[in-house]
Amino acid sequence: MKNQHLNIKISSQQISQACKSLTLVKAADTFFTHVLPPNQASTGTLVFVNSETLLSSAIKQNAAGLIVTEKLASLAIEQTTAQTPVWSTPNVHLSMTEALPLFDQRTTLNNGHHPTAFISKSAQIGQNVTIEPYAVIGDNVIIGDHSVIGAHCILETGSNIGHNTRLSGHVFLGYNCSIGNHCLIGPQNVIGSDGFGFFTDKSGTHHKIPQIGNVVIEDHCELGAQCAIDRAALTETRIRKGSKFDNFIHIAHNCDIGENALITAGFIIAGSSKVGRNLTTAGGTHITGHVSVADNVILTGRTGVVSDIEKSGIYGGFPQTDHKESLRIMTSLASLPKIRKQVTQILKHLGLDKE
Question: Which residues participate in catalysis according to the annotation?
């Protein structure tokens, strides 16, 4: 099914100007209205191609323009019509990061403040900021130029957002918390809710420890949908620049996530843990509280980190261990019933089963 793009008309010249990784190998003036997979292409479609099979499909579907890998450039030139522009690229995915923003309607919204939004008189709103319906902008909030505040967002007193940052609908940004420049925050994120801190007395009664710190999200970070990042008890919970989060992630109070983390869904980290640069995780990974993780660590799916990781590398299992060792352990688990039966037989044979 074709994507429903409204009022999008991107010229081949715009593609060439925006995409520094592209080389124009066959010039033709045309306009594009959408981007689709090769097998769904039609008039007005720009497609990305990295195999001969996909190239044939794109040509059969009369794609309006092609971005192809360098090894396919000559073939694409030969097989397309004179009206079809062709660009070559060393890496299709790199070119996607450059071309697709031109077709992203979220970046072409009309600027302005919707009349149903509440904006405190003490808030400082930058130039060309979009504030969508029913957003609440509290006292002394600061919003940088060209940012977008989605519908029903709540920005509590003293919070601040950098320039060119977008908050999707229903984002909560708590008191005195901050989000940097060029960030993308998905829907229903909660940033700056109270950390889970209690003192339990001798009678078993739980007394809340006020969480008076904040959350700091640095530049060029991205959060998927429904992530929760707790404010610190006294200082800050920090997500460092360039980190990318999937959906359903929980960062507890006082944690520090290093630069350029790439964290998939189901990640949970308990309080006061510190993660180094370039952490990469598979799904369902957990890190306990008060531990440190070195730079350049990869955690495989469902890893449970219960102690410090002091060296870069790949880790898996619960508790975490070297990835290869964790695989050996996992493959051994299926043999445990047989091993247990054999050990019982050996003990019985030796007359040691009574001890």
Answer: 253
